[in-house]
Design goal:
Distance between the termini: 65 Å
Number of strands: 10
Strand content: 15-25%
Structural class: alpha+beta
Shape: elongated
Largest sheet: 4 strands, antiparallel
Radius of gyration: 29 Å
Order of helices and strands: EHEEHEHEEHEHHHHHHEEE
Strand order of the largest sheet: 5-6-4-7
């Protein structure tokens, strides 16, 4: 039987683009290329004087090392803003945490995070992979899109799916919480409700029913708060999810003891608070749903504005007009706009 020899796995080759400013001639190009090729891991380095951009390939490329090599050679790497989409933020505390994580990355000069659009704008020479890792270490997800249009389309689709899911969870949580609220608070507010419960299912069976319904709320629609809140609490960086998780767990846990082990509690303190846990989750979910609707409208407005923008620009460099994507236009470029055209 013929045996196929196992082919050795080839090392992964990275490709990176870096803008270089200050070059004036072919000698500058050669100087920058030599500096880049001297960086460990670099296999090839090609510098284009017209576009003032260097293309580097190699294994495990370190952007910070490449930038340092260019600067040591006497040239500049402009700090260009990078847009990153951040997922999982729920409050101002999350925004501050993400900004601190991004600013801690070497090479970052500024970082601004917008909760409404779930976007971060980072300026500096830091590698995108390093920025993504910093956001992940902070407990959130980061990703980039190819263009502003792609970002708007992706954000709109995500917001629509999130809104539909939240609407479903709000309806489920409300349907399960309403009987709990009526059984517990109705018995406290109205004597006839209390008598009706006592004469039909009894108080203990009422607690069993509340336990079942509240458990369905907490570990169904409300499970998202525990999945995000408890890890954040373990990292000593609590957020809104942590607050909801701790509050509902306290009410639910005390109610469990009162229901199944009442002898542990002092006399006169055997009460249940299932309705508090269930209603808190329902109200927070309702707030999240309304917030998602508002963000969805914002995304639609951004998408319409992006649709009005010019996708390309005619840039004059070294006396030659070249059609380039808007993302490649840099400060100081001379842009040619003809009559009737949109200004990029």
């Amino acid at each position: 039987m013929n045996m196929l020899a196992k082919q050795p796995s080839l090392p992964r080759t990275d490709r990176m683009m870096i803008d270089v400013e200050g070059m004036t001639c072919a000698s500058c190009v050669a100087h920058v290329e030599r500096a880049l090729k001297a960086v460990p891991g670099v296999e090839t380095a090609s510098v284009n004087l017209a576009t003032e951009r260097a293309e580097i390939t190699g294994a495990a490329l370190d952007r910070a090392a490449l930038v340092q090599a260019v600067e040591d050679a006497g040239y500049e790497v402009p700090a260009r803003p990078v847009d990153i989409t951040i997922e999982g933020m729920t409050c101002a505390s999350c925004v501050a945490r993400v900004e601190r994580a991004l600013l801690s990355v070497p090479g970052v000069t500024s970082a601004t995070v917008n909760l409404a659009t779930e976007r971060a704008t980072v300026t500096g020479s830091a590698d995108l992979a390093a920025l993504t890792r910093a956001v992940a270490d902070a407990g959130y997800e980061a990703r980039t899109a190819a263009s502003a249009t792609a970002i708007a389309d992706e954000t709109a689709a995500k917001k629509s799916a999130e809104e539909a899911m939240l609407k479903r969870d709000v309806l489920i949580a409300a349907a399960l919480s309403l009987p709990v609220f009526v059984l517990e608070m109705g018995a406290h507010l109205f004597a006839w409700v209390h008598m009706a419960v006592m004469n039909t299912i009894g108080m203990q069976n009422s607690w069993y029913l509340q336990f079942a319904l509240t458990s369905a709320v907490l570990f169904g629609p409300g499970l998202r708060f525990f999945r995000k809140g408890l890890p954040a609490l373990a990292r000593l960086t609590p957020d809104m999810n942590s607050l909801v998780a701790v509050g509902t767990s306290a009410a639910y846990g005390y109610s469990l003891v009162a229901t199944f082990a009442p002898g542990v509690l002092p006399a006169g303190t055997t009460f249940v608070y299932y309705e508090a846990a269930a209603v808190i989750v329902t109200l927070i979910l309702l707030g999240r749903y309304l917030e998602a609707r508002a963000k969805g409208r914002t995304s639609e407005a951004i998408k319409r504005l992006v649709g009005l923008q010019a996708k390309t620009a005619r840039v004059v460099r070294i006396g030659v007009a070249t059609e380039l994507p808007v993302a490649e236009v840099r400060p100081g470029d001379l842009v040619e706009v003809r009559p009737g055209e949109r200004v990029p």
